[in-house]
Design brief:
The protein is of the alpha/beta class and 466 residues long. It has helices at 43-50, 77-90, 103-114, 132-141, 153-164, 187-200, 204-213, 216-219, 256-269, 346-356, 369-378, 404-416, 437-450, 452-463, and strands at residues 7-13, 16-23, 28-32, 55-59, 96-101, 119-125, 227-232, 250-253, 283-286, 289-297, 304-307, 325-328, 363-366. The chain has 14 helices and 13 strands.
Length: 466
């Protein structure tokens, strides 16, 4: 069964962790996403290709999504192409099919030019061919810094920026001549793109910058005969197929489904190596869902399993030195945030994860609601370290048309540093936690990932009576 979002796992490449999604079985095709997104954004084309009997491997490119950055200040498309080639070598693949969208198309085309013997077929969906004036303008204005602010204004900016890119190109324009003929995306679509940028933070700039420093004329004559350069008619980059570097080399297709079908047909006709049966680790299959786990420390002693608080993730936890430590992203939280739409039995889910990891004898501890969850599994007293419970009117973090939910998450995270519980804002519930803007922003991002599962776990922990 192919789960929503594909089968996920981490692969270590040159000491960097790379998150990949896998769909289907058969010869290998790498699908490379655009910016400032992650591999979750290319699910539709991944499924279309996998349905034709191919294995799709969609990585979060370095510095995007959950993948570590390249150790370079200003990587270009060649650097990303080499990193992609190292990934194929790590997976034991000599020849692969390639599909790239926008920034990913620039990376895929550069890969094919640099490594022709490793390229079975190439599909570029929206290959940019910038003019010098466009390149200078975009490098100057398109990639402003993304820095948290105590008033939460960075969240308002983020939503407005993600909305704007569905109306204008470039997104920061207000010129009617640069307005696109398309509907504003749904709040859910804008939210997904916003979450991708939140995952990357200010590091989105060097990742995205590579798209604007890319030069189509440097690779066009070196692309393989098994290359297909295409664009949907609605794509803002469709006009680039008429520019000198790409003129006569590409095709415009009527819509996105037609493009995906043509891409799948092309890749089937030029198959790469068979993909290995198993790719990556770091996720457990719990029924039809996936649960992320993190090995914080390794060692021979009795392991410690750590459970984070409601609305948090394993990244919040402090390592216990001198013994092996495993941390779970609880259902609906952190990297386990995808899926988990049905009812959750919190204790049984964690128990199933420990069984899958052969950790039935592990010591279990937790923070906040995670402490209560650990108590139900071990019988040890819960020590949440804070007051559990939610306000009578539980605030929603579901996507809203104006992005108010982003600011709401940041304000909740801010009040958590001043009151316990955060919604009892009076002198009797005052706490004095250190002012830490980065930690407050990170907590807001975790709350947004958890969405309603934050309140579900909080309510469950408050109601256990432990």
């Amino acid at each position: 069964m192919t789960r929503p979002g594909g089968e996920r796992g981490f692969v270590t490449v040159d000491g960097r962790r790379v998150l990949i999604r896998r769909y289907g079985r058969g010869p290998a095709v790498l699908v490379i996403h655009g910016s400032p997104q992650s591999s979750r954004a290319v699910e539709a084309v991944c499924r279309a290709i996998a349905a034709r009997g191919l294995t799709v491997i969609a990585p979060d490119t370095p510095g995007a999504g959950a993948s570590d950055s390249l150790p370079l200040s200003d990587p270009d498309s060649a650097d990303f192409a080499r990193a992609l080639h190292h990934l194929t070598e790590t997976l034991g693949l000599f020849r692969v099919g390639l599909y790239g969208f926008h920034t990913g198309a620039a990376t895929a085309a550069t890969f094919a030019a640099l490594f022709p013997n490793s390229t079975a077929a190439l599909v570029c969906d929206g290959l940019p061919a910038w003019t010098e004036a466009e390149r200078a303008r975009f490098l100057a204005d398109y990639l402003p810094p993304f820095q948290p602010a105590w008033d939460g204004s960075h969240m308002a900016w983020l939503w407005a920026r993600m909305e704007a890119q569905t109306v204008f190109f470039p997104w920061h324009s207000t010129d009617p001549a640069e307005r696109m003929a398309m509907a504003v995306s749904s709040p859910e679509h804008i939210h997904a793109n916003a979450m991708d940028l939140l995952a990357t933070g200010d590091a989105y700039r060097p990742v995205y910058r590579a798209a604007f420093t890319f030069r189509a004329e440097a690779v066009a004559d070196r692309l393989p005969s098994t290359g297909l350069i295409a664009c949907a008619a609605s794509d803002i980059l469709a006009t680039h197929l008429d520019r000198p570097a790409l003129a006569g080399r590409g095709v415009i297709l009527p819509d996105i489904p037609a493009l995906h079908a043509a891409a799948a047909e092309h890749l089937v006709a030029h198959p790469g190596d068979p993909a290995p049966d198993r790719i990556g680790d770091g996720f457990l299959a719990i029924g039809d869902e996936r649960l992320a786990f993190h090995t914080l420390l390794e060692g021979p002693d009795r392991p410690l399993v750590m459970l984070h608080d409601a609305g948090g993730s394993a990244t919040d936890l402090t390592r216990a030195e001198g013994r092996p430590v495993i941390a779970l992203d609880l259902p609906g939280h952190g990297l386990s945030s995808e899926g988990w739409t049905g009812p959750i039995d919190w204790s049984e889910t964690v128990r199933a994860a420990l069984d899958a990891l052969n950790l039935s004898d592990a010591e279990i501890t937790g923070v906040g609601a995670g402490s209560v969850l650990a108590s139900t599994l071990t019988g040890a007293p819960a020590r949440p370290g804070r007051l559990l419970g939610l306000p009578d009117a539980v605030p929603s973090l579901a996507p809203e048309w104006d992005g108010a939910h982003l600011l709401r998450a940041f304000r909740i995270a801010s009040w958590e540093r001043l009151f316990d519980p955060w919604h009892r804002r009076d002198p009797a519930h005052r706490v004095d936690r250190p002012a830490d803007l980065a930690a407050t922003h990170a907590r807001a991002v975790s709350l947004l990932r958890a969405h309603r599962r934050w309140s579900d776990l909080e309510a469950w922990a408050a109601g256990t009576g432990v």
